Amino acid sequence: HRADLAAGRALPAVTRDGRTVTLLANVATAEESRAAVAAGAEGAGLVRTELPFLTAADWPDEAAHAAALRPVLDPLAGLVATVRTLDFAPDKLPPFLTAAGARQLPPEALATQLRAVVAAGAATRLRVMLPMVESADQVEAARALLPGAVPCGAMVETAAAVEGIDGIAAAADFLSIGTNDLTASLLGLDRLDPALTPARAADRPVLRAIAATVAAAGRHDRPLSVCGDAAADPHAVPLLIGVGCRILSVTPSALDAVRARIRTLDTAECAKAAAAVLG
Ligand code: PEP
Ligand code: MG
């Protein structure tokens, strides 16, 4: 079965009615980047950068960022590389932060990382993505620190982001829905709650928020991807397609199965299924 799926790598990720879905990968290591390219991803829709620093004594300097990031980005030369800035959280906490302070990346720490990202990603089709964005101001502040003309996007992963989606969409060059945190936020679940599964992105309040984000991206003519684990969930994928998502970023080991699933789908049927959930 795995061999059959891998054989499908030569086939495009196209629905039965001929709609192309762009498949990107979520990566954090060089090995994952290589696996993503081998499995036919068009690039990385999410490069997580906080993982090497969970045991760091202090904010990483530019050299530390570069050392961590270069091996991850090297296999992505010529491809889309969507590098997310540090996303420490209560469940991803380095010793120099408290849970309460985890979400505030000081401007100096952000500026340092952005310089390193732009240098390390020079051979890629680089994009920078900000986690936990709740206002257009955050996008504008980050863009002001970003050297060059690198696209700057916003993750949509909180109820507040969905409420302010038009302002955020206007300020950002692209949007990416983080269904892991968005589902937790909208359903009032802790990120570590076992009830928080990727399939819960198909719950009505979450799917409504996703549909509202897709609509805002359309109004502002911004590319929109989904990079939470729902993008690889067999139950959620048809509903994401049904509300108009056309770019999915998934863990490399899921690329073959997601491509095969997309090739079984019809977008009109997906839209009907989504409409039934949205009510
Ligand atoms: C998400 O929240 O859906 C996401 C992709 O980011 P992370 O899992 O790293 O919080
Ligand atoms: Mg998140």
From TrEMBL:
Residues of the full protein shown: 252 to 530 of 530
Needed co-factor(s): Mg(2+)
Source organism superkingdom: Bacteria
Record's keyword annotation contains Nuclease: no
Protein name: Phosphoenolpyruvate-protein phosphotransferase
Family recorded in the similarity comment: Belongs to the PEP-utilizing enzyme family.
Keyword Magnesium found: yes
Gene Ontology BP terms: phosphoenolpyruvate-dependent sugar phosphotransferase system
Source species: Phytohabitans houttuyneae
Molecular function via GO: kinase activity; metal ion binding
Keywords from the named record: Kinase, Magnesium, Metal-binding, Transferase
Every PEP-utilising enzyme C-terminal domain range: 5-266
Secretion signal, residue range per the UniProt entry: none
